[in-house]
Design goal:
The complex is a heterotrimer. Chain A is of the alpha+beta class. Chain A is elongated. In chain A, 38% of the residues lie in helices and 19% in strands. Chain A has 17 helices and 18 strands. In chain A, helix 5 packs antiparallel against helix 6. In chain A, strands 1, 3, 7, 8, 9, 12, 13, 14, 15 and 16 form a ten-stranded mixed beta sheet that branches. A three-stranded antiparallel beta sheet of chain A has the order 6-5-17, with no helix packed on it. Chain A has a two-stranded antiparallel ribbon with strand order 4-18. By secondary structure, chain B is mainly α. Chain B has a domain of 38 residues: Histone, subunit A (Orthogonal Bundle). Chain B is 35% helix and 6% strand. Chain B is built from three helices and two strands, in the order H-H-E-H-E. In chain C, a hairpin with a 5-residue loop joins strand 12 and strand 13. Chain C is globular, with a radius of gyration of 21 Å. The two termini of chain C are 25 Å apart. By secondary structure, chain C is of the alpha/beta class. Classes of the chains: A alpha+beta, B mainly alpha, C alpha/beta. At the B-C interface, helix 1, helix 2 and strand 2 of B face helix 10, helix 11, helix 12, helix 13 and helix 14 of C.
């Protein structure tokens, strides 16, 4: 009988901080650049050099901790993690071992589950090895770029949860402005620890670590493959060996890295060249005060406004879009109208992520203009379908509603005019009238349409329907 | 009883990225044994309750996040042979 | 109080200002002397003739323009070869750094360079500062100017030999477990290890980061004080450096009435050479006559300072030396099949035996399974030692001790017994463990005429107190006959 297995996973996520300079020296962190042109004696580890800690790195790490409900350590320390690899110029990485800056937070998922965080700590990145025709070279431009490592508890139970967890981290870090979190550029990468256990069991199975996931797709495929691999092993009565693995893009499989990365004795000890990081409660509160509204609270606020979760999610996902929404919905009776316009029409003009990230439509339609349009709707001065058409024109021309809607348009349709038009439509649609009076309710629809066309959309559709009904029932011909 | 075995010495040598030849191993194991036994004398003292926090007794020494021009690449590669294409050569075939 | 004997630096600057000789002439004299006498001493491993003369000419131009000399300006000096000099080869006397040319200056060198210090060259040392004789150098050992069949000491043997041999007015050395004080003691000159954090380590090629300090080796206490004042500024490049608390040169009066001088029994118990014991005991009585109050106490924790030192120093050293793999600078082995082999061969061929032993010990004490018993425990003990000294300084102002329990050993003596060699550091090491300032001053001679050194240890950032106490001892009339030995080589004054 086949046993059903449960996935138990934890993620170690590395986020590149968007400071101007590296963590221990003043070299730029700017992306690109010819190899070895963003270097100095400190970040290539020349003998005699010493590190000096970038204060913004500490601030950003604390903000990341606050945004994920962590405790901020009053006393944090830096440590050396010793290992030999050509991309690591000092043969040790300065990181944090037993006294990290942040501990014990969580990320809440949409299914209500909380993925607990063990810790967040700061460390330096290594350089980049380049392999070419059997030769190996190294470029130290990225050496010393500041990272935070976010370690989760093994609370993740599915690939979807893993994806959502990572997306949430990405969103939060972007919101608080500490990283641009672009997986394709390497500013966000993660290692996944997976183990399996029979459903219902409390004991943890043996875990494997899959290193360096740099895309959501690869992570998904790697986790799927690894789940099946471990399930197969357990089904055949074999043991899962604890090891480090890597995902091979070509084959779609995870491969053992045994012998290369395993049994590394990092010989951690306190970094003697750096001093303690003391963060008193006042400093923590000052930094907390600098945080913007975070995705979760914003989501709550939008859904309480009556916006559908799917739409709210889309608005929250792009901070610039959310800020635009807040400005456009200011003082508006029904914010749903704003979100409908944005998601329904404006998003079509910003098809790419990049455009939404900067809310590109703002150059054509500043939020005040959308705000003015929706207020006209609120006041009943224009109808919905009118507004939709005007919005399209606003996006095409960049003009404000006041320039596009004349006083006449806003006047709507007077009672007498409506009466006259309804009479005309009834007169021209005898067949429909007969059908309606004969019991076919739907026969009134084309007549409403006709009234709307005749009034160029300005009539109130409900009022028109009412009037037509009344007139037909009174026997007006 | 040996303070440290040849196998342990080889393990430490590996960690240290040092090669120890067969001839050297005997003498090295002996030398290291003497030194480790010397180090063992600290066992006679009991621990202090307080953790030693570092000799400098300083905290919060920071650098502002301001760019300082990097060194020109010729200087960075100055102490290396074969850095013509701008990279540090790690391994070259042949 | 009228200064009895001016320091060498002050005398030389006076002669330059009074135009008795030009800076160029002074520098030429030193360079000639080095050419003639260095082969016997092997103090210098590199001379920088052109740069020295260029600087000398700059000084002469300023003097001609009527400018007053800056502190240490125009004075010919030398740097230990683990102090980084931009554009000048810096090897730590190791094969693995042969040919390495730094692209930046050590901060202390920057300070002196700005004041037109005349750099004569780089001096010899034990490889990576690991040793007590300077014989662990890839260039061979430095000899003692008082008797060239004796070692100059280590690891700053070259600097001490140069100053004692009149081949430099002063030298900068480094001290991790005694490497300034011990060679100063052996060579009969003054050597100061400042408080940890008083002098910047930026540019000092690291041995043990929480123990290393750069300091002066000089002919007199006044000279050592002048150099200390010039180099002990806070440095933004070194997070652990806060600079000196206050200038020292101005407070050398030699007045020590009521100064409490502590004598710890453990320091004196271990002296094997009777002449050293006698000289130190005489020094204690001398201080009493000068008005100091002698306080006796015990410091039983002292005997653990040595194993604590070797555990912590080797742990930090193994980490600091991990970077030497031939990829970015220095020696790289010629034939290899893969990267790992390249690195292992480079290091095995490039490092000397003592360095390799310390790297191995360092990894042993840090390795999983041993970390708690060795490194963690040693750190804990370090705290105990620091506290023990703090208590001692509640009872006294200065601790008097031997610098080394013997005089300079014969050339080739070291390398016979590992641990016995380490034990010669017993008086100096505790001072580094506790991060305190310590100065070695000549206090006598043995039957063979070899200098004996006494050590004055102070509380943190109290260099002024120990240097003043040393000054009082040195400025006595009897000093020259009892403690000073003229060396007939180098520049004649």
């Amino acid at each position: 009988m086949a046993v059903k297995y449960e996935m138990v996973a934890g993620l170690e996520t590395h986020v590149e901080l968007s400071t101007r300079t590296k963590i221990f020296c003043g070299c730029t962190t700017a992306f690109g650049g010819e190899p070895n042109t963003h270097c100095c004696p400190i970040c290539i580890g020349l003998p005699g050099t010493l590190p000096k800690l970038n204060e913004r790195v500490v601030e950003y790490a604390i903000k990341a901790g606050l945004a994920t409900h962590c405790r901020i350590a009053e006393n944090a320390r830096m440590d050396r993690k010793n290992y030999v690899y050509p991309d690591l110029p000092k043969a040790y990485q300065i990181s944090q071992f037993d006294k990290p800056l942040c501990e014990g937070g969580y990320i809440e998922l949409s299914n209500g589950r909380k993925i607990r965080l063990t810790r967040i700590h700061i460390e330096e990145d290594a350089g980049k090895l380049v392999h070419e025709r059997g030769d190996t070279y190294v470029d130290y431009n990225r050496g010393g770029v500041p990272l935070i490592e976010i370690v989760s508890e093994p609370d993740i139970r599915s690939i979807d949860e893993a994806k959502e967890y990572l997306e949430k981290i990405q969103l939060i870090m972007k919101y608080i402005g500490v990283s641009d979190c672009k997986m394709q550029e390497g500013s966000l990468r993660c290692d996944v620890n997976i183990s399996l256990r029979p459903v219902g069991s409390e004991k943890f199975g043996t875990r494997c670590e899959i290193k360096n996931m740099n895309s959501f797709t690869y992570m998904e495929r790697a986790m799927k493959y690894e789940f099946e691999r471990q399930a197969d092993l357990l089904d055949s009565g074999e043991e899962v060996i604890q090891e480090t693995r890597r995902y091979d893009v070509e084959s779609g499989c995870t491969e053992s890295m045994r012998g290369k990365e395993d049994a590394q004795d990092y010989r951690y000890f306190r970094e003697p060249d750096l001093v303690a990081i003391f963060t008193p409660a006042e400093k923590v509160e000052a930094l907390r005060g600098q945080l913007p509204e975070l995705p979760d609270s914003r989501m709550k606020r939008y859904t309480e406004m009556g916006i559908a979760p799917a739409d709210a999610s889309l608005l929250v996902k792009y901070q610039a879009v959310a800020q635009y929404f807040d400005a456009a919905a200011d003082g508006v009776k029904n914010p749903k109208n704003v979100s409908n316009f944005m998601v329904g029409q404006m998003f079509r003009r910003m098809p790419t992520d990049e455009e939404k990230e900067r809310c590109a439509i703002v150059s054509a339609v500043p939020p005040e203009n959308l705000n003015a349009l929706v207020k006209l709707l609120d006041e009943g001065k224009i109808r919905m379908n009118q507004a939709k058409t005007v919005l399209e024109t606003m996006m095409d021309t960049g003009k404000a509603p006041s320039e596009l809607i004349s006083a006449e348009d806003m006047a709507g349709v007077g009672q007498d005019d409506l009466l006259e038009i309804c009479r005309k439509v009834i007169g021209e649609n005898a067949a429909n009238v007969a059908d309606y009076l004969g019991g076919k309710e739907r026969a009134i629809q084309p007549m409403i349409g006709a009234v709307m066309r005749a009034t160029k959309g300005k009539a109130d559709a409900k009022a028109a329907q009412q009037m037509l009904k009344q007139m037909m029932e009174e026997g007006v011909k | 009883m040996a303070v440290v075995t040849k196998e342990e010495i080889l393990k430490i040598a590996n960690l240290s990225k040092l090669w120890v030849s067969e001839e050297e191993l005997e003498a090295l194991t002996r030398d290291m044994g003497e030194i480790i036994e010397f180090a063992n004398t600290i066992n006679a003292v009991s621990d202090s309750a307080e953790e030693f926090d570092g000799i400098h007794r300083l905290s919060n020494v920071f650098r502002p996040d301001e760019v300082i021009p990097s060194y020109p690449r010729e200087k960075i590669l100055k102490n290396v042979d074969g850095g013509e294409d701008g990279y540090f050569p790690v391994k070259k075939r042949g | 109080m009228e200064q009895k004997r001016p320091g060498l630096i002050r005398s030389l600057q006076r002669r330059l200002e009074q135009k008795e000789l030009s800076c160029r002439e002074l520098t030429e004299e030193y360079l000639k002397a080095i050419e003639r006498d260095n082969p016997a001493l092997n103090a210098y491993i590199l001379t920088t003739r052109l740069a020295a003369l260029e600087t000398a000419e700059r000084v002469d131009a300023r003097l001609a323009a009527g400018e007053k000399l800056l502190p240490l300006e125009g004075i010919p000096m030398t740097l230990k070869d683990n102090i980084s000099t931009d554009g000048i080869e810096t090897t730590c006397c190791s094969k693995i750094l042969k040919g390495y040319t730094p692209i930046y200056d050590a901060s202390v060198w920057g300070l002196l360079k700005k004041n037109n210090a005349v750099l004569l060259g780089k001096t010899n040392m034990d490889e990576f500062a690991m040793g007590s004789s300077s014989e662990n150098s890839c260039f061979g050992g430095s000899k003692n100017p008082h008797n060239t069949e004796r070692v100059a000491g280590g690891s700053s043997g070259g600097g001490a030999s140069a100053v004692a041999g009149n081949l430099a007015a002063y030298a900068l050395g480094s001290d991790t477990g005694g490497s300034i004080r011990q060679p100063a003691s052996f060579c009969g000159v003054v050597g100061l290890k400042p408080t940890y954090g008083a002098v910047s380590r930026y540019g000092l090629i690291a041995y043990a980061s929480s123990l290393d300090q750069i300091g002066p080796i000089a002919a007199t206490v006044e000279d050592a004080a002048a150099v200390f004042d010039a180099i002990s500024l806070p440095d933004p490049m070194d997070s652990t450096c806060r600079g000196k608390q206050s200038a020292v040169s101005g407070i050398l009066t030699g007045e020590i009435e009521g100064l409490r001088i502590g004598v710890a029994k453990e320091y004196f118990d271990g002296i094997k050479q009777p002449e050293v014991a006698a000289a130190l005991e005489k020094a204690v009585r001398t201080y009493e006559k000068l008005g100091a109050k002698i306080v006796s106490f015990e410091l039983p924790i002292l005997k653990y300072a040595l194993p604590v030192y070797y555990i912590l120093a080797c742990a930090e050293a193994t980490s600091n030396l991990g970077r030497y793999d031939g990829i970015r600078y220095g020696y790289r082995t010629e034939n290899y099949k893969n990267i790992n082999e390249m690195i292992c061969k480079t290091r095995s061929e490039g490092f000397g035996a003592e360095v390799k032993r310390r790297i191995m010990l360092g990894n042993y004490v840090l390795s999983s399974g041993y970390y708690d018993a060795y490194y963690k425990k040693a750190q804990n003990l370090r705290g105990t030692i620091v506290k023990a000294f703090q208590s001692a300084f509640e009872q006294c102002d200065v601790i008097l001790a031997p610098t080394v329990p013997m005089t300079a050993f014969p050339v080739g003596f070291t390398g016979q017994d590992q641990v016995e060699t380490y034990l010669t550091d017993i008086c100096t090491v505790p001072v580094n463990i506790a991060g305190l300032p310590g100065v070695s001053v000549p206090c006598g001679r043995d039957g063979k005429g070899l200098p004996i050194g006494m050590q004055l240890i102070g509380n943190s950032f109290r260099e002024g107190i120990i240097l003043n106490a040393a000054y009082a001892f040195e400025q006595r009339d009897e000093y020259l006959s009892e403690c000073f030995s003229k060396v007939e080589m180098g520049v004649k004054f």
